[in-house]
Design goal:
Layout lengths: L8 E4 L8 H7 L3 E4 L4 H4 L2 H12 L4 E3 L8 H13 L4 E6 L1 H16 L18 E5 L11 E6 L4 E6 L7 E4 L9 H20 L8 H20 L4 H21 L3 H4 L1 H8 L3 H16 L4 H11 L3 H9 L11 H12 L13 H10 L1
Parallel strand pairs: 1-8, 2-3, 2-4, 4-5, 5-8
Antiparallel strand pairs: 6-7
Helix pairs in contact: 4-5, 6-7, 6-8, 6-11, 7-8, 10-11, 14-15
The structure holds NADP nicotinamide-adenine-dinucleotide phosphate and fe (iii) ion.
Length: 363
């Protein structure tokens, strides 16, 4: 049986935020705007939102301390500010990091959660409404019920999910991605590609989403290089943003798999961006899953009009040429952490710790 749930109202296209006024009035009275240090401003989304809030006569508070792979401590600080400022909804502007932070702030504040209680599903009973304004094309968090949080003390990164964390509204305007640096454009595209592929790998896969999966993968392959050659081209940026949205639709139903679990320790210990951490294991993971999804991959590559080898050749263009040469003690420790991660439950075939170690050895 397949269950499909997608409660987010999506506004799509150039200047879509201009339509937000009447909807924001129905959501609340005072938002906490959650952003990173510079992207909300650079992308143009923050000034546009502030203008709308002034017109509506809304007061708001801006929390701009979110860094890449958002930290639990900084998120708790945001929740304290949310409560102290008497806010009643959150608006996350940015890549996955500020939007995930906004989601976590919403549930921490609504349930008075302490320390690591966000990981205890039974403690999440309420959430303040969440609005998402993406400025990257990758995570799909604008339409997922997940948030991924890093715990510096335990040197661990882990996601948690709850249907209450689907954004109520999301405003996807591709022009906000014009300012993305080349590396972030590439790495976030690899993240979206991972999500789409995981819609094939996952035990919870939704067969009727395959048209979106196949189209999303082709869209990335066709539009990544043109975007890098012409970064302010609305058409190309819109294509990449649509692939990210499709990836979000997919993992919102199917969850992520080993493909994502294996990337988390590479980010926390070696500082690899989230998308790159997915990208460098993508070929090995596809080969590992291949016996369980052979027919699906045949259909995919027929649709793409390329062989698996040609796809790997395309993929390798976006990856570093030097090897990581991971030390033995890291491989031992990380493989145990990966085996215990919640995404592992979705694998279509049984995967052993030795297979994970072998993948890490080859990086
Ligand atoms: P990000 O960590 O949000 O941002 C990466 C970098 O890009 C930051 O330096 C950011 O600057 C900058 N940036 C963002 N938008 C920009 C723009 N328009 N112009 C110029 N610079 C811009 O990157 P992300 O890949 O989107 O998010 C990664 C996070 O999302 C990870 O923690 C990952 O685990 C999580 N994730 C969540 C889900 C989910 O469903 N919840 C799914 C996949 C991944 P600032 O620091 O100034 O913002
Ligand atoms: Fe991801």
């Amino acid at each position: 049986m397949i269950k499909y749930f997608m409660p987010t109202k999506i506004f799509w296209g150039k200047n879509c935020l201009q339509e937000s006024g009447e909807f924001l009035k129905k959501i609340g009275t005072k938002p906490l705007i959650v952003t990173g240090r510079s992207s909300a401003q650079l992308s143009g989304a923050l000034p546009e939102l502030m203008q709308i809030l002034y017109t509506l006569d809304f007061t708001f508070h801006h929390y701009a301390e979110i860094e890449e792979n958002p930290e639990l401590e900084i998120i708790h600080k945001g929740a304290e500010i949310f409560k102290a400022q008497n806010c009643d909804f959150v608006i996350g502007i940015g890549g996955g990091s500020p939007i995930d932070a906004a989601k976590a702030i919403s549930v921490i504040a609504a349930n008075n959660l302490k320390e690591r209680e966000i990981y205890e599903a039974e403690k999440i009973k309420n959430a303040f409404p969440i609005i998402a304004i993406p400025t990257t094309s990758g995570t799909g968090t604008e339409v997922t019920p997940y948030s991924v949080v890093s715990d510096r003390e335990q040197k661990k990164k882990a996601g948690f999910g709850n249907p209450l964390m689907f954004p109520a509204l999301t405003f996807c305007d591709p022009k906000y991605t014009f300012s993305l640096p080349e590396k972030v454009t590439i790495d976030t595209a690899l993240d979206a590609l991972s999500h789409l592929l995981e819609g094939i790998y996952s035990k919870k896969r939704c067969d009727f989403l395959f048209p979106l999966i196949f189209n999303g993968i082709k869209t990335i392959i066709d539009n990544l290089q043109p975007t890098l050659s012409d970064p302010k081209n609305f058409y190309f940026r819109e294509k990449l943003m649509s692939a990210s949205l499709y990836g979000g639709f997919v993992i919102a139903q199917s969850s992520t798999t080993l493909q994502h679990s294996i990337g988390y320790p590479l980010t926390t210990h070696y500082g690899l961006s989230h998308g790159l951490a997915n990208g460098i294991v993508m070929q090995q993971i596809m080969e590992l899953y291949h016996p369980a999804i052979e027919n699906e991959l045949i259909s995919l590559f027929r649709y793409l009009g390329m062989s698996r080898d040609t796809f790997y050749h395309w993929l390798n263009k976006w990856l570093p040429k030097t090897k990581l040469n991971l030390p033995e003690d890291f491989i031992e420790h990380a493989s145990i952490e990966i085996m215990g991660s919640r995404n592992m439950a979705q694998n279509t075939l049984k995967i052993s710790q030795d297979e994970i170690k072998a993948i890490l050895h080859r990086l």
